[in-house]
Structure formats: structure tokens, C-alpha cells
């Protein structure tokens, strides 16, 4: 009958619709599975690439560290010229190793970064100890005095650097005479309530150490090779462009202004740092550290920038890595950007 035909057709349409819907669901499920497999594959490949990069970094970094350690161990017992050459080679290799680490930060874990930084710090300490042992230099400091006193101090410095003063007699060592000029070390230490300056002639291309200073103002005009600040309290320290690294350790309630290639700050609290850094700034075990762009100026600043080799147009002053802060999604509470209205521009003593 016609009713039976109509009933049959309606159920046939419904069955066909169910089949079509089932096919669509199956197709979507299949597509979802394919996409899931592709995502898993990409994740596995990405993880594999990261692991390969980390393995390459580890083998390269620690292999190079072993070469530097071997180079430093061979400095003992050599003449001054050879020790100078090896120390300079080791210094360059340490700087290249730091750059290699900086370029690898994106795919390294925080643990790997901390381990590598600790290894670099050990190399820096070994480098300083070997330099002091093989190329001993008389540490000296200048204070702001009358012109007569300054003239007397410069005279004493000039006489202390003569071959006779270094050797204790009038004989000049032929090996030393032919040696290339080595970066020397000079420093200021154990002072309180002093205003201290050094000129470009005194610090350029030298390793400068400032230690155990309290309530002092220091002006370093020139371009040193490295700068080490240790046990600094209530001080204001301004320095010209540093060719390589600045290391700050145990600095409290102070203000610093320094251009450099790399900045490493450790155990520092309530300190403002006005910096021009072409690599990155790193802090560890610090709190209350404020950062702002370098604002100090003096007549020969541009010449010293050229001498240092720093890129005047590249300043990563606000790119700070805190090795004690592992939450990459939240800013570290241990450092801040100094607000523009609170930044210091007038550095007159």
C-alpha cells in the first residue's frame, strides 16, 4: 500500500542519513588520529633535536674547558714571554666559551646553564691565580691628593716599572725584553671615605681589581681589559668601557656605571647598575639590584669605546638572566628596571 511505501522510504532516508553521519564521524576520528600522530612525531623530533644540541654543547664546552685547563697548567715553569702568550690564549678561549654558552641558552636547561656558569667561574679563578703566579705585578692605588703628592706618586710608579726595579739589578732579561706587552693587574683596596681616580695611562688594557672599599667614590678613566669588584659597600664606582668581562661579588648599597661585553653579578644587594653590555647581564644570589642604561660621560669616552672594541649601538642593559629564578613565565623579583624619572644623569663628585 501507499502508506507502507511512505513508511519504508522514510526509514530508508533515516538509515542513509545514519550511515552518512557514521562515515563523517569515522572520517573525523581518523583525521584526528592522523593529526595526533603527526603532533607526536613533531614533538619527538623536536625533543630529539634539542637533545642532540644539548649533547653537542656538552661535548664541545667541556672539551674546550679541558683544553684551557691544560693550557693554564703548562704556564708553570715557562719564561715570561711564553707564559704571557699562553695566558692571553687562555683569556681569549674563556671569552669564546662564554659567548658559546650565551648563544646556547635557548635550548639548555637551567641546570645545564648553572653547571656551565660554575665551570666558567672556576676557569676565571684559575686564570687569575695563574696570572698572579706567573706574571706577578705590584698592586698599587692612587688617591686624590695635592698636585705635589700626585707628582711624587707618579714618579714612584715610573721608577717601580723600570727593568732595574723589577729585576733588582741593571741586567735586562732578553726573554722579557722581547716579550709582547702583557695585560697587567692594578688595583685599589682597603680604603674608606676616599675619592680615588685612575687615568687612561694607568688602567688601559690592564686587569683592574677593586676590593674592600667602603663609602668611596672611584673614577676609572680608560679602557681596562677586565674589572673585578669584591666586597664593595656604600660606594659609587664609574668606569670607562671594559673590553671583556666585569665580575661583581659581595656589593652592597652601591651605585655602579660600567660599559662592558659581559657582566656577572654575585651576592649583591640594594645596588644600582648603569650598564652598557653587548652580551647579557647575569645575576646570581642577588636581591634589590636595579638596572638602567649607562649615562656617565667624560671627554675621551668615545675614544675609549673604540679602544675597547665594544659595539656602541648594541646595549642589552635590560636583558638580565637570574640563575636563581627558574620560572620563565614570571619576571624575577631580584632585579628591576630603574624608572626613568629616578635615573642618575649628573655624576659630578
In brief:
This protein is an alpha/beta fold. Helix content is 45%, strand content 24%. α1 (2-73) packs parallel to α3 and α2 runs antiparallel to α3.
Please, could you describe this protein's structure?
With 349 residues, the chain is α/β, with parallel strands linked by helices. Helices cover 45% and strands 24% of the residues. Helix 1 runs parallel beside helix 3. The N and C termini lie far apart (112 Å). About 13% of the residues have low confidence.
Number of strands: 13
Largest sheet: 13 strands, parallel
The separation of the N and C termini measures 112 Å
Percentage of residues assigned to helices: 40-55%
Fraction in beta strands = 15-25%
Multimerization status: single chain
- Helix/strand-derived category reads alpha/beta
| Structural shape | elongated
Number of helices: 8
Helix and strand succession?
HHHHHHEEHEEEEEEEEEHEE
What is the mean pLDDT? Answer: 79
Rounded radius of gyration (Å): 31 Å
Organism: Gouania willdenowi
Protein name: Tubulin-specific chaperone C
InterPro entries: C-CAP_CF_C-like (IPR017901), CAP/MinC_C (IPR016098), CARP_motif (IPR006599), TBCC (IPR027684), TBCC_N (IPR031925), TBCC_N_sf (IPR038397), Tubulin-bd_cofactor_C_dom (IPR012945)
Subcellular location: Cytoplasm
Amino acid at each position: 500500500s501507499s502508506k507502507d511505501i511512505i513508511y519504508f522510504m522514510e526509514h530508508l532516508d533515516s538509515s542513509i542519513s545514519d550511515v552518512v553521519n557514521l562515515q563523517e564521524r569515522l572520517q573525523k576520528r581518523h583525521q584526528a588520529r592522523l593529526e595526533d600522530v603527526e603532533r607526536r612525531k613533531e614533538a619527538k623530533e623536536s625533543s630529539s633535536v634539542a637533545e642532540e644540541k644539548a649533547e653537542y654543547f656538552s661535548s664541545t664546552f667541556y672539551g674546550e674547558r679541558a683544553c684551557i685547563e691544560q693550557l693554564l697548567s703548562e704556564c708553570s715553569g715557562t719564561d715570561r714571554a711564553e707564559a704571557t702568550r699562553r695566558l692571553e690564549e687562555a683569556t681569549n678561549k674563556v671569552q669564546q666559551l662564554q659567548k658559546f654558552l650565551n648563544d646556547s641558552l635557548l635550548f639548555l636547561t637551567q641546570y645545564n646553564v648553572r653547571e656551565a656558569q660554575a665551570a666558567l667561574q672556576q676557569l676565571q679563578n684559575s686564570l687569575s691565580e695563574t696570572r698572579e703566579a706567573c706574571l706577578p705585578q705590584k698592586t698599587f692605588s692612587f688617591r686624590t691628593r695635592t698636585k705635589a703628592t700626585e707628582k711624587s706618586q707618579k714618579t714612584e710608579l715610573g721608577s717601580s716599572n723600570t727593568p732595574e726595579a723589577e729585576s733588582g739589578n741593571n741586567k735586562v732579561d732578553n726573554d722579557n725584553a722581547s716579550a709582547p706587552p702583557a695585560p697587567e693587574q692594578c688595583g685599589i683596596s682597603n680604603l674608606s671615605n676616599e675619592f680615588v681616580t685612575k687615568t687612561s695611562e694607568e688602567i688601559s688594557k690592564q686587569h683592574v681589581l677593586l676590593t674592600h672599599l667602603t663609602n668611596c667614590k672611584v673614577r676609572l678613566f680608560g679602557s681596562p681589559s677586565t674589572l673585578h669588584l669584591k666586597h664593595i659597600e656604600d660606594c659609587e664606582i664609574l668606569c670607562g668601557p671594559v673590553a671583556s668581562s666585569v665580575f661583581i661579588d659581595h656589593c652592597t648599597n652601591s651605585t655602579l656605571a660600567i660599559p662592558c661585553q659581559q657582566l656577572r653579578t654575585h651576592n649583591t644587594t640594594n645596588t644600582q647598575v648603569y650598564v652598557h653590555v653587548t652580551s647579557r647581564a647575569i645575576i646570581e644570589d642577588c636581591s634589590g639590584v636595579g638596572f638602567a642604561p649607562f649615562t656617565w660621560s667624560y671627554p675621551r669616552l668615545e675614544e675609549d669605546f673604540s679602544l675597547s672594541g665594544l659595539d656602541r649601538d648594541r646595549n642589552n642593559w635590560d636583558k638580565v638572566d637570574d640563575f636563581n629564578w627558574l620560572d620563565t613565565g614570571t619576571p624575577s623579583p631580584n632585579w628591576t628596571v630603574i624608572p626613568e624619572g629616578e635615573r642618575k644623569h649628573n655624576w659630578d663628585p
